[in-house]
Amino acid sequence: MRIGLLGTGPWARMVHAPVLQAHDALDFAGVWGRRPEAAKELADRHGSRPYDDVDALLADVDAVAVALPPDVQAQLAVRAAGAGCHLLLDKPVATTTAGARAVVRAVREARVASVVFFTTRFMPEAGGWIAEQADTAGWFTGHAQWLGDVFHGESGHPFATPWRGEKGALWDVGPHALSVLLPVLGEVRRVTAAAHGPGDTVHMVLDHVTGASSTLTLSLTAPPAATDASVELRGASGVTRLPRSDTDAAAALTRAADALLAAARDGRPHPCDAAFGLRVTEILADAQALLTAAAR
After folding, report:
1. Burial of 25: CB neighbours in 10 Å, binned 0-12, 13-18, 19+
2. This model's pTM is above 0.85
3. Residue 285 needs a FRET pair 20 to 30 A away by CA distance; which of 60, 135, 192, 279 works?
4. Beta-sheet pairing, 228-235 with 188-196
5. CB-based contacts of 10, cutoff 8 Å, min separation 6
6. What local confidence, expressed as pLDDT, does residue 274 receive?
7. What pLDDT is attached to residue 296?
8. Per the database record, which ranges form the GFO/IDH/MocA-like oxidoreductase domain (predicted)?
């Protein structure tokens, strides 16, 4: 499969480009970025071709991997699907429900495959645990916390990007937490509450159709010593926690690329497709509306 990369930022440089180059079943055909000089540098480093015109790249490939801010991603994903390209997207798909719905509509109309890279879902240890808990009945409650220090002090973190600074933890790490909770506790009936904490910290309470409830604590401004990513479930069978994983982001993205190849080959939607990405966006948008209303 000939695949192009849209984006030249830290995630594209550190993870996407090396993975696309190394994957045996992919031909890393080209790079487009909003800064042509960055696209050339990244393409040259990985033996690919820089493109100044995104539509020219879309015409030359079978699929695209996207490493761009979410709302830029959504616009280009619609164009890519319209050009017949399968989509390896980043989370969140968009930061508006309209943007995410447009992506889903384009994917369906073009009949292309889509996979959203919810990192934890593509780690074998986590994936196995999620599947096991999804088959276990009687969950009472769950708690997820994703605490990072991207914007703590003057850390100079590579992911302290403008869109994360604007949208905060709700939109950056909220998708990770939801990608674990939803397949286990079921569809969210209602975002019961959302409140701000220190910095960009957000607390959420969710009501699931299964009768379970869950809470999320999300932050990109936690003190370095307090950073963590964890999920705990409590129910009739006891207490269980998301296992720690030795899988790095590159290995997880390789598995996501494998999933896209499989979905493109057999036509069966992946559980982490654009439609699932839309549902995550809808839940986050509901939480954002509660936060905005409370701030008035």
Report:
1. exposed
2. yes
3. 135
4. unpaired
5. 158, 159, 161
6. 98
7. 80
8. 154-238
Q: How far apart are CA 9 and CA 49, in angstroms?
A: 17
Which residues of the chain are under the pLDDT cut of 50?
none
The residues, any chain, with a CB within 8 Å of residue 149's CB and separated by 6 or more, are 155, 157, 220, 221, 222, 223, 224, 227
Q: Which residue has the tokens 């719905």?
A: 101
pLDDT of amino acid 156 = 64
Residue 160's pLDDT is: 77
Please state whether the peptide bond connecting residue 198 to the residue before it is cis, i.e. omega within 30 degrees of 0: no
- Which residues lie closer than 8 Å to 67 by C-beta, 6 or more apart? 5, 6, 7, 8, 9, 11, 12, 15, 16, 90
Burial class (CB in 10 A: 0-12, 13-18, 19+), 169: buried
